[in-house]
């Protein structure tokens, strides 16, 4: 499946240039206001020219964006792709008859070539006399020669390629509603793999041509819509009922079917997800909530999404967007649309159908959507990310397992050495909605709209070489802050700082690599010294030091232990009756050695689950071992 991994990288790279489109849409919307009637006609002309300028230079943006994305943000690759586009433009302008113009497809080709050459030859060494052209400068030299030859070839080939695209577009138009039905289904299916950007690039930026009043040729459903083509928008209009109504309805259904004890957290999370989807069309947080739990339900969702495209086509609705089919784009671009008001009643009906259908399916087939079982509900705040990033990195296998980490709007896109080292359960605990392994070490982890912030924090950690110790869960149960322990000494951190757990099973395991320093006589507590010099105390229950019999240690002082290794067995039922509390603190008794602390969300954990706590030490410990 390595080819899927390559496609996901290309898909992400193709998406990057489209980030400039919302600015274009906003400028065109502002330019459509009656500035002349208000006596400021020049403002309308300026904003209209600025908005159309983004579309005019879109091929150049694709060249830079694709090269930048494929080269892992390699600046010389983007510069080389742009230089290639300039050369291409000059050749076809001087030698062509005007029928050949730069297109987004050409920009993508230059971006792919520049990104590949940069990755392959950025460290190339040439003979000393010409080493000036070695390294990353070789990419610029190569792209200059390549673009010249490619432009010469395209003088003859471009009309043939364009006729091929036109023929495919005519075939799609001839298929009518059925063609849009297939497109809608394929769009939703490819979304699950993060490959929908490749499909959309063909339909939105390459199929169909329209000549503006000034003679400019624009191609693709999206640029044609903003250029005023009355036939454009077929491949975008049908997405509005899904994004604005159907998917938020799924979020409401998930909230209603959640367990009462988990409903408040689920409601907070999915109300936010519904609002984000309604306003901006970012849908993956909601879709991934049931994609893995019920693939058959996702297939039904894809079929209904295809039918939405049929409905908008049948009612001759033409509407478009700069970014996604959310309410913001619906309003901004309404002045360019046709019959777009009908999207509202269609969407309301679709929302009601989705709501009742998903509630019935979740309840009838007992689909484990968030809130029906313990697990992530995609909760979190941007402020929590710097503290959770070390734990996310560890769950990905640590920085030694990371080859490359990138992101799009809703997911991390990673290349790792070994995808088996990824801890899916830990990532779910940390807020992941789902994980897709595409083979060849290519992995996608859906974190929603915080993905870009998470990528930035992970990259910071990758560049640091701080001594860090990671802690696994010593018991199965619920994790809670140390200050919530019902004991004044532990809660006030007089013994040390850390976290606590309410155990659900009578087994205590080691949270770290280390050596057993002390096993208390009644075996209710155990102390471990890590190679980095941390002293860790785990105390089973509160006021249990006088209890005799419920504890059985399976290790002794001086034994070497590792995360997940059994330390103590205890009678949980006995402790529920005789202990003041089941709260089990895990604290570092010499916290002066710690520079900073990071914690996983305080919720249910599994025994040995990594990582629930991470600390950065004040002093580097070259001989220490990271757990």
UniProtKB/TrEMBL annotation:
The keyword Cell membrane applies. SUPFAM superfamilies: Duplicated hybrid motif (SSF51261), Glucose permease domain IIB (SSF55604). It is a multi-pass membrane protein. One of its GO terms (biological process) is phosphoenolpyruvate-dependent sugar phosphotransferase system. Keywords: Cell membrane, Kinase, Membrane, Phosphotransferase system, Sugar transport, Transferase, Transmembrane, Transmembrane helix, Transport. Residues 1-374 form the PTS EIIC type-1 domain. GO terms for molecular function: kinase activity; protein-N(PI)-phosphohistidine-sugar phosphotransferase activity; protein-phosphocysteine-sugar phosphotransferase activity. One of its GO terms (cellular component) is plasma membrane. It holds the Pfam family PTS_EIIB. Residues 487-590 form the PTS EIIA type-1 domain. It comes from the Bacteria. It is found in: Cell membrane. The chain crosses the membrane at residues 55-88, 100-118, 138-161, 168-190, 235-255, 296-315, 340-358. The active site is at 408 (phosphocysteine intermediate). InterPro entries: Dup_hybrid_motif, Glu_permease_IIB, PTrfase_EIIB_Cys, PTS_EIIA_1_perm, PTS_EIIC, PTS_EIIC_1, PTS_Glucose_EIICBA, PTS_IIB_1. Residues 386-468 form the PTS EIIB type-1 domain. NCBIfam families: EIIB_glc, PTBA. This is PTS glucose transporter subunit IIA. It comes from Paenibacillus glucanolyticus.
């Amino acid at each position: 499946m390595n080819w899927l991994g390559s496609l996901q990288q290309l898909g992400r790279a193709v998406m990057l240039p489209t980030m400039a489109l919302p600015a274009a849409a906003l400028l065109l919307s502002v330019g459509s206001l009656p500035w002349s009637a208000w006596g400021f006609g020049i403002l309308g002309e300026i904003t209209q020219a600025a908005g159309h300028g983004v579309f005019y230079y879109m091929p150049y943006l694709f060249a830079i964006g694709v090269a930048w994305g494929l080269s892992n943000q390699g600046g010389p690759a983007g510069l080389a792709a742009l230089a290639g586009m300039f050369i291409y433009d000059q050749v076809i302008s001087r030698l062509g008859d005007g029928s050949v113009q730069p297109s987004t497809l050409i920009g993508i080709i230059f971006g792919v070539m520049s990104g590949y050459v940069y990755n392959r030859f950025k460290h190339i060494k040439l003979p000393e006399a010409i080493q000036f052209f070695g390294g990353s400068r070789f990419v610029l030299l190569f792209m200059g020669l390549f673009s010249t030859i490619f432009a010469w070839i395209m003088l003859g080939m471009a009309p043939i390629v364009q006729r091929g695209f036109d023929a495919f577009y005519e075939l799609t138009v001839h298929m009518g509603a059925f063609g849009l039905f297939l497109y809608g289904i394929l769009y939703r299916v490819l979304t699950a793999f993060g490959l929908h950007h490749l499909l959309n690039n063909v339909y939105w930026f390459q199929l169909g041509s329209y000549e503006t009043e000034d003679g400019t040729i624009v191609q693709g459903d999206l640029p044609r819509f903003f250029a005023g083509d009355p036939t454009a928008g077929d491949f975008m209009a049908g997405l509005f009922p899904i994004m604005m109504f159907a998917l938020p309805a799924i979020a409401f259904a998930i909230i209603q079917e959640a367990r009462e004890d988990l409903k408040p957290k689920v409601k907070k999370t999915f109300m936010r997800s519904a609002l984000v989807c309604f306003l901006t069309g970012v849908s993956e947080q909601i879709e991934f909530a049931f994609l893995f739990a019920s693939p058959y339900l996702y297939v039904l969702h894809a079929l209904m999404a295809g039918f939405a495209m049929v409905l908008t086509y049948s009612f001759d609705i033409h509407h478009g967007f700069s970014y996604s089919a959310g309410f913001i784009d619906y309003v901004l671009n309404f002045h360019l649309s046709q019959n777009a008001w009908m999207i509202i009643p269609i969407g309301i009906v679709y929302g009601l159908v989705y709501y009742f259908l998903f509630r019935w399916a979740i309840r009838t087939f007992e689909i484990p959507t968030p809130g029906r079982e313990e697990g992530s509900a995609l909760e979190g705040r941007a402020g929590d990310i710097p503290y959770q990033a070390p734990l996310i990195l560890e769950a990905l296998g640590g920085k030694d397992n990371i080859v490359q980490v990138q992101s799009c709007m809703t997911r991390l896109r990673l290349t790792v050495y070994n995808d088996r080292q990824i801890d899916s359960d830990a990532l779910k605990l940390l807020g992941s909605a789902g994980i897709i392994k595409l083979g060849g070490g290519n992995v996608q982890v859906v974190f929603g709209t915080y993905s870009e912030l998470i990528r930035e924090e992970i990259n910071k950690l990758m560049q640091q070489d701080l001594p860090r110790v990671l802690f696994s869960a010593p018991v199965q149960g619920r994790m809670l802050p140390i200050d919530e322990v019902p004991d004044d000494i532990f809660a006030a951190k007089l013994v040390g700082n850390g976290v606590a757990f309410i155990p659900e099973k009578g087994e205590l395991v080691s949270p770290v690599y280390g050596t057993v320093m002390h096993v208390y006589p009644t075996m209710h507590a155990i102390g471990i010294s890590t190679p980095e010099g941390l002293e860790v105390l785990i105390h089973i229950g509160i006021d249990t030091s006088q209890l005799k019999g419920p504890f059985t240690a399976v290790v002794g002082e001086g034994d070497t232990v590792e995360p997940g290794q059994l330390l103590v067995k205890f009678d949980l039922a006995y402790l529920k009756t005789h202990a003041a509390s089941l709260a089990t603190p895990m604290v570092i008794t010499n916290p002066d050695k710690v520079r900073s602390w990071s914690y996983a969300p305080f919720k249910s954990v599994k025994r040995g689950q990594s990582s629930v706590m991470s600390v950065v030490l004040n002093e580097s410990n070259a001989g220490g071992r990271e757990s």
